[in-house]
Amino acid sequence: MNKLDLHIDFSCPFSYIGSEKLLQFIEKENLPEDIVRFRSFLLNPTKDNVNKVFLENMTKKFGTSNIAETKERYRGIIEAAKRVGLNYDLDTIIDVNSKNAHKGLQFAIEEGKQNDYVRKVFSLHFEKGGDFNDLDTLVEVIKSIGLDGEKFLSNLDRLNELVDKDLQLAADRGVNSVPTFYANGRILLQGTGSFEEFKQITDSL
């Protein structure tokens, strides 16, 4: 069976929701875990990690008058997350560059644990206020899914190259937002999707 590629960024709430929806669909339909191949994408590749307070940064970005108004903008996302059993905790999110998290993704893919890793890192970021730019934190995530943290650290340069290859692949495919579902040589869906749409996609593979 051909794999479905899903381009995601760990800093993206829609990737958070769309990834979980797809994984729940795969489990419900008893599909092979490796039917999906997660692909790295960076919405903010130049994020400098200077100001890590998410709500302050988003208030500036949106031009809203205060944090309460900014929070209101996320009401729909929070409700969408709840519908698939997820929590989206605006008050604890740390706004940092996600590239190190994607290095961990590439490692987990090689080790056959990508789905576990994706869920753990999204939860770390959106539910627990964890710092996925911090390598020690990522090592703990990697160890929690039964993988070797030291092996991850010893391969960072090579994993960085794999992330860059995914970024170039996304550019070649015309991917400019996430989540984006790609198979059979074309973009099939952009957005969080539904079980009905996933059924159509997986039936076509």
TrEMBL record:
One of its GO terms (molecular function) is isomerase activity. Pfam families: DSBA. Residues 4-200 form the DSBA-like thioredoxin domain. InterPro entries: DSBA-like_thioredoxin_dom, Thioredoxin-like_sf. It comes from the Bacteria. Keywords: Isomerase. This is Predicted dithiol-disulfide isomerase, DsbA family. It comes from Anaerosphaera aminiphila DSM 21120.
